[in-house]
Fold:
Amino acid sequence: MSKLTQILDSSVGQKIIAGATGLALVGFLAVHMAGNLQIFAGADALNEYAELLKSKALVLWGARLGLLTLIVLHIAMTVRQYVRNRGLRSQRYARETYQRTTAASRSMMVTGSLLLAFVVFHLLHFTVGVILPGAYQQLDSEGRHDVYAMVVAAFGNPVIVIIYVVGMLALATHLKHAISSAWQTLGLVRDGNESKLRKLSPILAAIIIAGFLAVPLSVSLGLVGS
Structure:
């Protein structure tokens, strides 16, 4: 058995990979959120940002493949841990653990599944253009993909706004436990900084969720694109 296979098959290795990929995905979310907020700078700023990303095709596809790898590894390691724990846990132990854990930690598989479904919807919507194809195909006066108009058209639809709000609520619940758990798993919690990391985790989660929700809510309330 190779060293990599041993790591992937061990409980400790699975936890470390799940934690590391989880934190990397949190970093991606922060960068993605910052890009989305370009909409508040106006149509030209957002469309120029989107055009810049498209012009760096090699970098863009490299980032997409890297992101896909992170997602697959994170899901695979999380599911393997879940299955292993279910198999090892006695009925009595399960009841005791349930009493000590939080609702966020107990619902990680549920919120993770909801997030996976949401990611698929999001890609079909903004990347592939299957959802609201008419809005996806619009060009601005410079001949660029009119991302601003596409976003405004999307979040002018109450059903899509609700889907995104539900997706962000699932993300909020997931991040509430995931970030603090990753600190612990990767050994970043040290004497003297545990309190700071515990306070930092929900703050990071709140900033990311607020940033993502700002766009659909602002458009639906007529603060953007009116």
Notes: The domain at 9-220 is CATH 1.20.1300.10 (3 helical TM bundles of succinate and fumarate reductases). The chain has one domain: 9-220. The chain is about 80% helix and 0% strand.
